[in-house]
Amino acid sequence: MLTIGELAAYAGVTVRAVRHYHAKGLLAEPERDHSGYRRYGAGAAVELIKIRTLADAGIPLARVRELLDADPGEFAVAVADIDRRLEEEIEERKRHRERIARLTAGDHLVLPPEVVDLLDRLRALGVDERIVGVERDGWIPLAAHSPNRIPEWAARKRAQLGDLVDFYLILGQALDGDESQLPGLADQLAAHLTRLGEAYVDDTDLPPPFAELMDALAFDAAPPARRLIALLRERGWTGWTKVERVT
Hints:
Elements: H1 4-11, H2 15-23, H3 42-56, H4 61-69, H5 72-103, H6 113-124, H7 129-145, H8 150-176, H9 182-196, H10 208-221, H11 224-234, E1 237-238, E2 244-245
Antiparallel strand pairs: 1-2
Helix pairs in contact: 1-3, 3-4, 6-7, 6-8, 7-8, 7-10, 8-9, 9-11
């Protein structure tokens, strides 16, 4: 006869696990002997090993008793059903891992590869990360609103980068400059836009309310941009998401 500690050691589980199986009704709890100890026979050891084996296989404890009491045919059917459910859980966990991987992928989480490539190119050109962040945040609703046009717009923007890099660098200076520097930076931006001319005037055909939403995102992320755009308007240009000449 075995004590509960000996039984647990024999079956390769903890005493706490044995008591848990008692509480779940999976393993019969013997009466105490005259010394006040519970003593277990060989049958209890075999039963405990079966329980542990089924639990280690990933079978829910709620179904272990059912399997222990099943005849061979019922056991095979029940195990096949459990295997199918476990396979479904594995696939779901794989999907969770893929989502987690995307979370660690930064820009890849919500943006198509064309835009991610564009943002990486901006970083390589030395554009301030805060400006890259504003650019990224603008592309997120744009990709959700017009996903089919993203490749076209991203390709166009990438082709313009050689002309636009100074524009982005000036914007980066505006984030760190004080209010007194903004008029001078607005002069530089206006002159740059004038040199670009119609090559940069936006043609994304966004509805005005959506463009205003994207402007608001930019202004919230980079407050000096709002004042800068106001100064640009005085110099003949308006808009952030949709840059246009003032008529």
